[in-house]
Structure formats: structure tokens, C-alpha cells
Amino acid sequence: MNTGWKQILRALLLPCILLLGWELGVRAGWVSPMFFPAPTTIAVTLAALAKSGRLGADLLATLLRVALGLSIGVGLGLPLGLLMGWKPSFRAIVDPMVGATHALPKIAMYPILMVLFGIGDGSRVALITLGAFFPMLINAMTAVRQIDPRYFEVAESYGARGFRILSEVIWPGSLPLVLAGFRLALNGALLLGIAAELLTAREGLGGMIWMAWQTFRTEELYAALFVTGLLGVAFNSLTDLMVRILAPWRPGAENGK
Amino acid sequence: MLHCRGLSKRYESGNGSVTALEKVDLDLAEGEFLCVLGPSGCGKSTLLRLVAGIVAPSAGSIEFVPGCGRPPGRPRCAMVFQDHGLFPWMTVLENTGFGLKMQGVAGKEREAMSTPVLEQVGMGGFGRHYPHELSMGMRQRVALARAFVSSPDVLLMDEPFASLDAQSRAVLQRDLRSWQEERGTPVIFITHDIAESLALADRILVLSARPGRVLANIPLPPGRCHSPVAGFDPELGAIGREIWGMLGQESCPELQGASL
Ligand SMILES: Nc1ncnc2c1ncn2[C@@H]1O[C@H](COP(=O)(O)OP(=O)(O)O)[C@@H](O)[C@H]1O
Ligand SMILES: [Mg+2]
User: Which residues line the pocket of ligand 1, CB cutoff 6 A?
Assistant: First the structure.
């Protein structure tokens, strides 16, 4: 506990110095508050946005899109990736196609997605789905392929076949890397969610950033950026927690490595 | 009780095929401890995979006739490997119960059956630990517990003690023999260590270089003490030198005729 607090204080040291310097810089008139509003101004704006309910509504809009796209992307990418890692014949069929589509920057497919799913939330969620699908698929596949063949041999020698191999070897054996893939999928989903909102939405964190920019309310811009950053941090902590709970056997997992 | 006749195995791969085993005959009697010796790459592991039914033979047959009125069929096998034999994602207790789980034994019962066997192999206090928290010797003890608790028809061991230090190896050899005799489980034990085979075996099967064929089938004197220094016994020492000669010629043909 004691060392935990020390660690948190150390992590906060640099941001605090930065914020302090920024605040002083603005107050002393060294930097323009037009482009760099003082942290205290941003904090006041953030509080006002939160109080008015606008921040909550935007945050919720982004979270809903990301959650939906993530669920679909992971729901498709995970089983497909596990199967591709398990069955070389299936991998041979699907892999070239995956390689070709994965090479495309996902954001470049947004216009096509808008043609396919409309310019509203349909195409936004579809884009987020792509952002989650590929890292999940590729990591799940790699996760299965790196399992030591010895474990399959042990399981089979004790009579495990088919589904038993899946539940006793493939799933637990791939879980640590699958969770690492889930983390990338989460980050990919958030990235493309914000990107889609920047381009086409009025609400959501991306929409908020874009509107603030258009109307030149820089303190709102920074407030939205701050919340987006917090969301990223929260997502990463969530996946760290999942690793610790779901894959406790990983050496070092118990001390959070 | 286990009769293998004319076992051959060819592995087909992208760049041609490899004949790993050729026409190997192998018999295993009730309660017998058989050591298989052979140069590296001669198909020893392949032989175990064939008996375990993990790979199918290219030719030949494996017949299993159980003693106690059970109909002939596949032998129930338990395998112990040199390393990575325990699942890192299972605790010691879960690993030990794995064979039982595959036989459909319920969780509570698995635990009740595993606990005494873990105690017997000296790992009683480690049920909740994960394999990475144990030393190599302790892991092999757990692997043995898992093998014994599933009461296999045949225990298959693939160089299980090869990566242990001499001290732990000697202790585990002695323990293995005593547990094996107590239960009467027949064992096929692969090793490349002649002294180890002299210490453990009732009978030694020597394989040739790839493709593995049976070079010699050597019964050892029964009822002796299975000690790690068995090779110092004059009679066993002579057998050991004979095997050295055979294997020396197999792995370095240019040594032909040279005496060791
Ligand atoms: N799955 C496989 N595919 C192709 N070749 C294999 C395979 N497994 C083993 N071999 C080959 O068969 C031969 C015997 O292998 P193995 O049974 O592991 O020998 P040993 O255990 O005696 O060292 C080796 O030459 C090895 O390269
Ligand atoms: Mg081998």
C-alpha cells in the first residue's frame, strides 16, 4: 500500500510540474491564453461542462459507439483468430484476405462504410468495428500459434480431443496474448471512434473537439482532450486488471508486470 | 500385455519425407520397466507418440491386452516429458487432476484423489502453487503424480530427468522405481543415459540411428537394487560397455571396430 502511493506520487510528479509551468507561463503572459488557456481555466470549463450535463452526454455517446463496435469486432475477430491459429488449413484460406485488407489504413475505408451503412452511427460503429477486429484477430491467431506444441501432446496423451483441446489448451494457453490483443482492440476502437466523430458527428468526444475547434473555444478543446486521455488510461487499467484476474499464472502477473 | 509389431513411421513434410522408425517390435509385460536407448533423432519420441495414439503408424500394429477381463483396445496412457509437461495456467492440484478430468471425474473427487498422490510424491503443500513457482525437480514430481493418479495402463516417459541436476535425478530415479513397483504400472522410459537405464530398467531396448530399428533387447538381472550406481556392479558394467559399443558405432560409424 505504502509503495503503491509512492508510485502514484512519482507518476504524478512530471504532469504536475508541467501544469504548474503552464499556469505560470499564462499568468506571466509568456504564452497566449488564446492557444494555451491556463489549466485552471480548463478545469473550470471542465467543471461547467460536467455540471451542464453536456460532457456526460458526449462521453456516453462515444462510449456507446466504442462499446458496440468493440463487441462486434472482438466477437468476430476472437473466434476467427483462434480458429485460424488452431487449423492451418483454415488459416491458409483466410490469411491472404486478412493480410490484404489489414494493410489498408482503416480510416480510408470510412467513405465506403458511409456508402454501405449510411452517414449516421451505422458507419461510425462499422469503422470502430474494423479498428477492433484486426488487432483482435491477428493477436488471437498469433496467441494460439505460440502455444508450445508440447501442451497439445500432453492433453492428447490423456485423451483430450476436439472441444477439450480448445477449452483446456487453446483458450488458457492463448489468453495472456489474447488479452494483449484485446487491449490493442480497445485502443483501436477508441482511436477510430474519435476519428469518425471528428469527421461527421456533432456529439461524442470527437464531435466536441471538432466543435470547440470550429468555434475557437480552446479551453473546451483542451477539456475534451483531457477526458479522451483519461478514457484511454481507464481502458488500459481495465485490461491490466483483466489480465491479473483472468490470467494469474503469468509469471510476474501478481506484481502487476 | 502391450504388443507392437512392425511399427514404422514416415513423416511427410513439404521437403520430402523422413522415416523415423522402421519395423520396430516391442513387447511390454505386466508391471515391467522398459528403457529405450538410442542415438538422438532415431525416433524414440515417435515411438511413444505411436503408443499413446497421438500419431498413427505408417505400418504395423499396436495390440493392448489388459489383464483384468477388460476387452482389448487402446491402452490408457500417461506421458511425462523432459520439460513443459505441466500446464502453466493450472495450479499443481489442477495439473494433477488433469488426467482424471479427461476421464470425466468430477472436480471434488479429482481433488480428493489427487491430494494423497501429491503427498506421496512429496508435493503435498504445493497444491495451490503454479508450476513457474516450482523447481524443475518439483515439477517432475507433480508430472509423476498426475501420471499415477490417472491410473494409466502404460506410463510413457520421454527423457523425464534429462534436465535435472545429478542429485535430484538420483533421488527421483529411486522414488520412481519404488512408486512404480508399488502400483505395478508398466513403464516405457526413454533415455539417452546408459547409467540411468542400468539403474532403472528390467529390460533395455537399444535402437539404431534413424530410421530406428531394434539393435538389441537386453533383459537385466531381476530383483537387484535400483541404485544410481548400478553401473558399478560388474555384471551390469559389462552390459553397459556392450551398449556403449553399439551406440558408439551407431552415432559415429567411423568408430567401427574401435573398442571403448
Ligand atoms: N512432426 C514431425 N514432422 C516431421 N518430422 C518429424 C516430426 N517429428 C519428428 N520428426 C523427425 O523424425 C525423426 C525422429 O524424431 P524423434 O522421434 O523426436 O527422435 P528422438 O526422440 O529419438 O530424438 C527426427 O529426424 C525428426 O526430425
Ligand atoms: Mg525425443
Answer: B 11, 13, 18, 20, 38, 40-46, 210
Supply the ipTM of this predicted assembly: 0.85
Identify whether B82 is part of a domain. no
> By alpha-carbon position, which residue is closest to atom 26 of ligand 1?
B41
Sites in chain B below the pLDDT cut of 70: 230-231, 251-260
For residue B252, what pLDDT is reported?
64
Contact B136, B163 (CB under 8 A): yes
Domain membership of residue B207 (yes or no) is yes
- C-alpha cell belonging to residue B204: 533395455
Which grid coordinates belong to A170?
487453446
Contact in structure between B57 and B9 (CB atoms under 8 Å): yes
- Statement: the pTM of the whole predicted model exceeds 0.90: no
Beta strands in A21-121 (DSSP E): none
How many structural domains compose chain B? 2
Helix (H, G, I), strand (E, B) or coil at A158: coil
Disruptive mutation site among A151, A158, A175, A255 for chain B (greatest number of B CBs within 10 Å): A158
- Looking at the domain assignment, is residue B248 inside a domain? no
The residue out of B151, B172, B191 marking a domain boundary is: B151
- Domain of A168? 62-255
A221-244 pLDDT, tens digit each: 999 999 999 999 999 999 999 998
Count of structural domains, chain A: 1
The rounded distance, in Å, linking the Cα atoms of A85 and A65 is 29
Chain segment B78-130, per-residue pLDDT in tens = 999 988 789 999 999 999 999 999 999 999 999 999 999 999 999 999 999 99
Q: Answer whether A159 sits within 8 Å of B98, measured CB to CB.
A: no
3-state secondary structure at position B89: coil
Give residue B129's domain range: 87-151
Q: Based on the domain organization, do B119 and B207 belong to the same domain?
A: no
Shortest CA gap B52–chain A (Å): 6
What is residue A256's predicted lDDT score, i.e. its pLDDT?
Answer: 38
Contact B102 A148 (CB under 8 A): no
